[in-house]
Amino acid sequence: MKLIIHGGFFSESSTNQETKKAKQDALAEIVTLGYEYLKTHNALETVVYTVALLEDNELFNAGMGSQIQSDGKVRLSASLMDGKTEKFSGVINVEDIKNPIEVAKDLISYDDRVLSGEGAQNFARKNGHAFFNPITAQRQSEYEAKLNQSNNKGTVGCVALDDEGNLAAATSTGGKGFEIPCRVSDSATAAGNYANQHAGISCTGVGEDIVSNATAAKIVTRVTDGFSLKEACDKTFTELKAFDGFAGVVGISSTGEIYHCDSHPYMVWASFDVNLQVFS
Ligand code: ASP
User: Which atom of ligand 1 is nearest to the CA of 187?
Assistant: First the structure.
């Protein structure tokens, strides 16, 4: 059993020691809770549970505390992939929802598994997800001061390997902040979140770069074709360099290899693999 999570990148404005410690503590607590959960649940259930905890934490740019788009609205995107069945589900730019990853979970048993905007919101309401405003005072004041034009921070993700050898990946984001309304993030695409029976990957960074590089799907495909997880990540990140792509990933392979890497400093992450490890 193994579990790895990420909390996106540090923004320039939040690289102070206090924020770093708060993020380390939050990631350590959440990955520990997630690992406990994995002892009695499968990989798919665990990535949903763990990402929902990350969405509920205001330190991260997903669910509660998400960044605001240029028209003043928060639109959330999240996706889930079950490595066992190779089913992918997700929501893109859904509004007024507390835990978009749980809507993705509800969608995984449907034929139509990725919904956007109003359709996603209507589906969520029909499935019992109540109205929830994820805008925090902090995000509102950042928006008003137009301070959060810098991007590359805060998305969350999780990959789990359960004791039956199943892998799953989940990723959730509030996007880049100040983007054109309804811009589509990588997080609810196969470029940003992907898993099969060989590996699972969750990405963070600039969505446009991650989509151009097809990062998650490419790494998983390379592992499927015989690369180690580290080799697959390193080769994919070399390709990202060709256009100075900005990305970070966490991943696990079916052999139990657990790995993280980033193109720029610093992605924040934590893993549980018998012992707890947190970025430092
Ligand atoms: N990848 C996300 C996006 O482009 C942002 C992030 O990871 O922070 O929407």
Answer: 1
